[in-house]
Amino acid sequence: MSWLRALKETARSGLVIERRRLEPLIAIRGAAGLALVIGVSLALFGPVVAASSAFGAFQAAIATFQRSWRPRPVLALVSGASLAVSTFLGYVTGSRLPLFMLLLVLWTFIAGLAWAAGPTGGIIAASNVAIMLVTITLPTSVAQAALHAMMIAFGGVVQAALIVLFPVRRWGAQRDALADALAAEADYARRLRHDPVAHFDPVPLMEARDAAAVTPRQARRRPAELRGSRGVAERIRPVLASLADPAMGVPAEGPERDRVRELLAAAGSLLDAAARAIRHGDPVRLPERAVAALKTPDTGALLTGPPLRAADRLAALLSDVIEAAEGDGTKEERADAEETADAITAGRGRPSTGRHRRPTLLRLVPVVLKSMRGELHQGSPILRHAIRISVVAAVGYLLGSLLPYGHGYWAPMTAVMVMRPEFSQTYSRAVARFGGTIVGVFLATALVQTAHPGVELSAAFAVVCALLMYLLMRTGYWVGQACVAAYVVFLLGMAGDDWSQTVLERVVLTLAGGLLAMISYAVYPAWETPRLRNRLGDWLKAGGRYAASVIDQYADPADRGHDDVRSALLGTRATRVAWQEAVANAQHEPVRHRGLSRAAADDTQHALSQLGRVAMLLEAHLPEGGAAPVPEAGPLAEALRRATERGAKAVRERRVPDWGPVREALKGWDEAERQRGGGPDPVVRNGAGLLLEALEEFSRGLDSGSRLGASDDD
């Protein structure tokens, strides 16, 4: 993609307005906390301290809107405390430019590395640095700076207290994540009726797993319907795929296929009912037709072998979901749900699920530090982002100080707020920030020059802007930035510090900061395109480990647990999502493909998806502990594991993998079965053949795509 086209695409994406579900109660609570902090500060200390405390309350509320599964009060407290420390240290060193520049570079570098802990930490850290550049201009002495810092922290405490005293949808984010996962599987079940090999996006399940992680304190307070449902949902997906796939024994047409379609439709209806109940905390309302479809005895008459096993397992898992979704219902409602579940499964035992633990805040500190240290190596995009943002913040601050406009913090504040580790987000946010600032500053300045508001009216205008920010921030970045720009104008005007600055001066400084951010990425980029082969190799290695772990279960079922299968599956999901995100980012980069064409990316992605799907089908039929072992599965699993590890290395080195060891293992399996006169179960052998086909398709796609890419480069 050319630079001109890349700039057009990113600019267009930055100015998009999306239809999103608004959360007015949460927005009102955040604005009320801000108004309370401003009112108390005005009454006790005056408008200047009120401006500082308002920044603390404003940022603490924004932190609670970030995508995080931690308790919202914790996010508010952390945001307020970190901004207070930043403001005090910034003011103490502000009178000595070299010392302040050193602090600014160090503070911003750490904020850039905070992305290693996730987007929430990175966004909060960057926002604190940006707001610090404003708040350090307000105090007039060290004692005043300490007072301002305390009031900033007080703003975080107030927002945290309001969340505790006036909760809105307790566990709402966790409910939505689990409900989204169940709804995604319901949609998957319906699509399988018409497309037996339909694709399933694992992201909802991954988010549900993240949301299910709890601290010991949270575990004691978690609603009953959020316990265990996710683990059951994880096991439903392979069972649905196995029931629908023709390779598992159900013909493409006929009475057996019609019965499978009925079961899939019933599963979709029941999963949707459970999702609605969990999302809203209501009792489960089961569709009678779906329940009747699962309870009918016709299934055993029509289906045999693997399809019948899959149908039985599906009924058992659906009953677990129904019971878990009734966690907050009355005793009578839970009894009705349990009676229905028992009718479906005929009293079949249910597996227990363990608790997914999340470290407490204090125990998270060494985890975050370890993640940040892990990014301190050449080639790390997080390290490059930290270097870029720290240099740009320093240059922007110096540039703003040299320009004759005054209040030069608008330039570095803009740069720090828009910069992200990815090219597309940085450029789209720079355009959106500039557009939003023009709108917000123009409207706020026009209102100021027309109404000439005093301290109280300026504070009221600032609260209204914050309310609009909280309400509309998810609809589009430029919309939120328009509210932020107006908020800053009114708040600093309340403090008597910024009325003299014109619209043109603020816009010029904002444009300077945005241009610095964009230029820095062009000069010191962290392109995803050259790393696509590494991402693809990681996915191949993880997919091979998952397939090998599943095959290995058949070798000796009595001596093996399923923990290694689960960990391998999670690794496969993580590398797959990393690959998909890298491809999405690379599509907007002004960089040529460097050895991996779009055709090769599409073909290899399809092959690895097939590899994972076949492994998932085999996982749905894992043998019980007392099942007969399949001795040939052990050598095949080892061959798969080693071949995909070598294949991943070959992909990174721009070579085409060879799957000779896997072919030899399968030939040995066939020879052993001929000597025995057959195998114990054709499912695993047929699945092993499909795994080899997927690997060979991967090599063909990589080979043809690489030749095409080489010819394009020439």
TrEMBL record:
Keywords: Cell membrane, Membrane, Transmembrane, Transmembrane helix. It is a multi-pass membrane protein. Residues 327-356 are annotated as: Disordered. The keyword Cell membrane applies. It is found in: Cell membrane. The chain crosses the membrane at residues 44-62, 74-93, 99-116, 149-168, 386-410, 430-448, 455-472, 478-495, 507-527. Residues 96-190 form the Integral membrane protein YccS N-terminal domain. Residues 396-519 form the Integral membrane bound transporter domain. Its main location: membrane. One of its GO terms (cellular component) is plasma membrane. Belongs to the YccS/YhfK family. This is FUSC family protein.
